[in-house]
Amino acid sequence: MNVITAESRVTLHFELSLEDGQIVDSNFSQTPASFVFGDGSLLPDFEAALLGMSTGQEASYLMSPEKAFGVHNESNIQRMPRSQFSMDLEEGMVVSFADMSKNELPGVIAEIGEKEVLVDFNHPLAGRTLTFRVQIIAIEETS
């Protein structure tokens, strides 16, 4: 029987949903996704949940914030001078910033004041418990 190992290329349908059942992302009605185990496409704990699954198998996993996108971290919320922004801002808008290494860092505009803007650099799903539902379509060995 073909099962998922650390040397597998996996083709699957997946769905991420919040605790209230709201679907965040799903490809069940689309073409299945493929990834090579360990290529960074999936978070490590999401990959680990797939180990040992076989073609055709379906499962759901409850992923705590620590295993998903991390806990919400107050130190990732920054106040910035409003004068630093040259565009029209709206709450909920995602703005791209550069970190000290010049890497792109998305931030969500959380609050707009007269002099300051509150920007949340946490992942939008940080602090959320997610249900990760999968259906394994195909498994190939890469080695």
Automatic annotation (TrEMBL):
Catalytic activity: [protein]-peptidylproline (omega=180) = [protein]-peptidylproline (omega=0)
Pfam families named in the record: FKBP_C
EC number of the protein: 5.2.1.8
Record-level Gene Ontology MF annotations: peptidyl-prolyl cis-trans isomerase activity
PROSITE patterns linked: FKBP_PPIASE
Top-level taxonomic group: Bacteria
Domain named PPIase FKBP-type: residues: 7-81
Matching InterPro entries: PPIase_dom_sf, PPIase_FKBP_dom, SlpA/SlyD-like_ins_sf
Family indicated by similarity: Belongs to the FKBP-type PPIase family.
Full protein name: Peptidyl-prolyl cis-trans isomerase
Organism: Marinomonas profundi
